[in-house]
What we know:
Blueprint: H1 3-7, H2 10-23, H3 30-34, H4 54-75, H5 91-111, H6 119-134, H7 141-150, H8 153-161, H9 167-181, H10 187-194, H11 199-247, H12 253-276, H13 290-300, H14 318-349, H15 355-366, H16 377-398, H17 406-417, H18 425-443, H19 462-495, H20 508-511
Helix pairs in contact: 2-18, 4-11, 6-8, 6-11, 9-10, 9-11, 11-19, 12-13, 12-19, 13-18, 14-15, 14-16, 14-17, 14-18, 14-19, 15-16, 16-17, 18-19
Amino acid sequence: MPLNDEHNSDSESSRFSESTAASSDSEYSRQSFNSDSSSKPSSPASSPPKMITFDELMAAARNLTNLTLAHEIAVNANFCIKHEDLPQNSFAGTVKQIVHKAFWDHLESELNEDPPEYEHAIKLFEEIKEILLSFLTPGANRIQNQICEVLDTDLIRQQAEHNAVDIHGLANYIINTMGKLCAPIRDNDIKQLKATDNIVELLRQIFRVLDLMKMDMANYTIQNLRPYLQRNLVDYERTKFQEILEETPSALDLTTEWIKESIEDELSSASDESSSSPGADSSSKRTISPTLVLNNGYLKLLQWNYHKTIPETLITDEARLQELREKLKQLRIIACVCLITNNMVGAAIVDVPGFAEQLKRISLPLLEGMNKKTFDLKEALNAIGVQICSKVNRCLTERGLPTLDEEMQSNLMGQITHIVEENNPVCSLIDKRIQFFLRSLLALPSFQKSMPTMPGGLSVIQTEMELVGSQYASIVNFNKQVYGPFYANILRKLLFPETPMGKAETGTATATS
């Protein structure tokens, strides 16, 4: 597609996107910002400035941790706790290895004494008993009584005084009980325990498997908790954040700054349109659409410098937004590469089946790991250019057409490597198209499942863009549901500073959707 064709509909598209968002903005009328609703529990209450103590700060931190964990469990179906060992060559890994070896060596020396010294072993049995009891569900009285009876540390101490401790018998009982309580995935670990003869190594391995069983139990709990959290997550997150705000009144400072910057962007955009259209009415803060302000703020998150702290209300989705940003960078480059190639040799290969897809398959592997500091984008683009020239020449040869001469190949590779340059016209155009698609997506009602029309030049990445757009819209719409009342208070303060402040209506949360 020629570059000049790409430019034709940009201004109309931009106006269409903004008008679509504005048309759904009736819920966000000024009346909703002036309202002083009754004290609803899910509405954020304003907090007077106060000094906060260390305990209050720690309570806020705990609330934030709980909020983040609950959010991750609910929205990430793959979230689970994993067992990770420290790297052996790391300082922490070396210290752990030395300390553990010293402990187990000491235990072995005690058990090899004549008579054996059982005090440390008894403490291990007591710890094992508590772990086994923690696995039991309410009502499992029979096995609970049995565990307490067999692993009665007072009784074991009495036996130790008379050198009558059946330590292997106790270990076998523990292994059999673990076999009854563990998940099927641990059956092989239980078999390996039964095949271990050395008592010290056996106790060591018992603790290793118990750690795995604790992880399994935690993941089982997460799996059962997920549906409940998903049903109640909006109210839970809003309530938790309100608690944080009461304990830390400055907890919305970054969010306020984020919204303020978005308002300034909208004012600047309105001013530019007004100056370019002499007959247009002069814009003011009162005529700015709150929905457009928020949507503009959400769009900026996909170009956010993540060395800078993200707004407080988006901390729970920071990793997901950063991942989407990196994916969009990759897709933008692929679209640029395809557009440049089509503009240079499109007439000769326009009817080659799936040629754009082939270009994408060439580019994708070479752009993996773009988010890493060690990634050299210019070098990757140079490699892409070489492979694309080779691919184009093969296609031309197969069709009996002359291949690209050295000058054309050099020109094609040069244009591809220049994508990295600031204000590159092709890159700016593709980025503008991507922004338009995402802006149009946010302008759609949250209940509408269809995607907006894909702008020209993005067809080669349409499938990936729709997937990214779906994930992005899901994050944005949920965030609006949770934090809509908080945003309403901030927007009312910034857009209508002369109106009395009151509690934001609960319904404002849906108004931002």
